[in-house]
Amino acid sequence: GAGVSQSPSNKVTEKGKDVELRCDPISGHTALYWYRQRLGQGLEFLIYFQGNSAPDKSGLPSDRFSAERTGESVSTLTIQRTQQEDSAVYLCASSLVVSGYTFGSGTRLTVV
Amino acid sequence: GESVGLHLPTLSVQEGDNSIINCAYSNSASDYFIWYKQESGKGPQFIIDIRSNMDKRQGQRVTVLLNKTVKHLSLQIAATQPGDSAVYFCAEILQGGKLIFGQGTELSVKP
Question: Which helix (H) or strand (E) holds A44?
Answer without folding.
Answer: strand A43-50
